[in-house]
Amino acid sequence: MEKIKYTNLDETLYKTTLPNGLQINLLPKPGFHKTYAVLTTDFGALDLAFVPRGQKELVTMPAGIAHFLEHKMFEKADHDAFELFGEYGASANAYTSFTRTSYLFSTTRYLKENLDILLDFVQDPYFSASSVAKEQGIIGQEIQMYADEPNWRVYTALLQAMYPNQALSNDIAGTIESISEITADMLYQNYETFYHPSNMNLFVVGNIEPENVLTWIEENQNAKEFSAPAAIERGAVTLNEPVVAHTDLALTVQRPKVAIGVRGFDAVPAGQAGLKYSLVASMLLDLLLGDTAKRYLDLYNDGIIDDSFSYDFELQRGFHFATISGETNETEAFVTAVHDILNNAKANLQESMSEFELVKKEAIGSTLSMLNSLEATANQYDGELFDGANLLDEVALLESVTFADILAVADEFIGQGQIATVVVNPQTV
């Protein structure tokens, strides 16, 4: 195993890749009682078009199939994987994003047994026509439940405005119509293409002995047969269509809501430089919109924004964007102010230059705090998105950030980006 020592954090990450292609990352955390393991495939809601393993023609799948597959993986012919985790005292879960699907558990005992359960249930698919039909009903109810959630509706509307007519504009769970098209054969096609070990990584963090854990994983994997690793051919993701600048919605909300998105069109660098870009973009938003920024204080004191105001930066495989949202009775003033801040980002940054070191220290402190969370440490790992760079690399990268880096990302991301706005007003009866 390769040992990567982070002397600034007194941490050592153990890495290796098994002959079947499965990437292993082991991070011992002496003193913790719990261990957390997450098995992730580089496959998410965005991956609707691809060439199935062993075939030559591109196929397109119904929206929501990655999330549907995640649900179905737990159910087997004669048992449910959740029950097995429960027998060994572990808490299990799973989630699907636009670019990844992860299966995880946490436990304070029986680590070997729970690792076997995790690897076995993810590597032993069972789909039938009847179980797919049953799941269509379950997920259909989930979709309807989210349709009643205003914040989710606003977020989805903002994605549709930023990425019109593209896979990113689909709800991760799909629609009732799209999931009704899913069949057991489709699930097997997706599984065989994207769930090969060479497209997956396993991250284990906690009070572990890395050599012992690797031996357990190798024993599990050596007892199984896998086809040879093969490159995955994904369909091209078209991201060139311009954003929809303004969208009005009427929903059952008490107060109006505004969501503004900045869609990046610039090229994000690969590897650690990409991770640094993501960190700098987040600091950029802190300087422009954080609670120490002069414009934030002015807007807060004027009653245009309140404690519901928030912002975030998202970077995944093939896309990146920022979201800014809040509840306000002054929707026009909110939109005008945020657009002005974004359109004059460099001038506003110059006014906030004195806050740069404070924002940087806060970012480092937040990262160090996350390192005390096993869940955050494992879930922040994005595999090959940043060439294996992870949360442990972030402190050193943040320390290297200069104010010039902030100005450069403002130029690239906001300067070349496009802004979409969604305004939600209370529905009148």
Task: Give an overview of the whole structure.
- With 429 residues, the protein is of the alpha+beta class.
- It has 2 domains: 2-234, Metalloenzyme, LuxS/M16 peptidase-like (Cytochrome Bc1 Complex, Chain A, domain 1, 2-Layer Sandwich); 246-426, Cytochrome Bc1 Complex, Chain A, domain 1, CATH 3.30.830.
- 42% of the residues lie in helices and 20% in strands.
- It is built from 16 helices and 14 strands.
- The strands form 3 sheets. A 7-stranded mixed sheet has the order 1-2-3-9-4-8-7. It has a 5-stranded mixed sheet with strand order 10-14-11-13-12, with helices on both faces.
- A hairpin with a 5-residue loop joins strand 2 and strand 3 (23-28).
- Helix 13 (356-370) packs antiparallel against helix 15.
- The longest helix is centred in the first third of the chain and has 19 residues, at 129-147.
- The protein is globular.
Q: What is the overall shape?
A: globular
Average residue-wise pLDDT: 93
**Helix and strand pattern:** EEEEEEHHEEHHHHHEHEEHHEEHHHHHHE
In CATH, the topology of the largest domain is named Cytochrome Bc1 Complex, Chain A, domain 1
Low-confidence region ranges:
none
CATH architect. name of the largest domain: 2-Layer Sandwich
The biggest sheet, with number of strands, parallel, antiparallel or mixed sense and barrel status, is: 7 strands, mixed
Overall domain count: 2
- Contiguous helical run count: 16
Question: What class, by secondary structure content?
Answer: alpha+beta
Computed CA radius of gyration, to the nearest angstrom = 23 Å
- The total beta strand count reads 14
The percentage of residues in β strands lies in 15-25%
How much helical structure, as a percent, in the residues? 40-55%
Task: Strand order, main sheet: write it out.
Answer: 1-2-3-9-4-8-7
> Considering the protein shown, what is the CATH homologous superfamily of the largest domain?
Metalloenzyme, LuxS/M16 peptidase-like
Tell me, what is the CATH class of the largest domain? Alpha Beta
- In whole angstroms, the N-to-C terminal distance is 64 Å
GO molecular function: metal ion binding
Organism: Periweissella cryptocerci
Protein name: Insulinase family protein
Domain Peptidase M16 C-terminal: 182-358
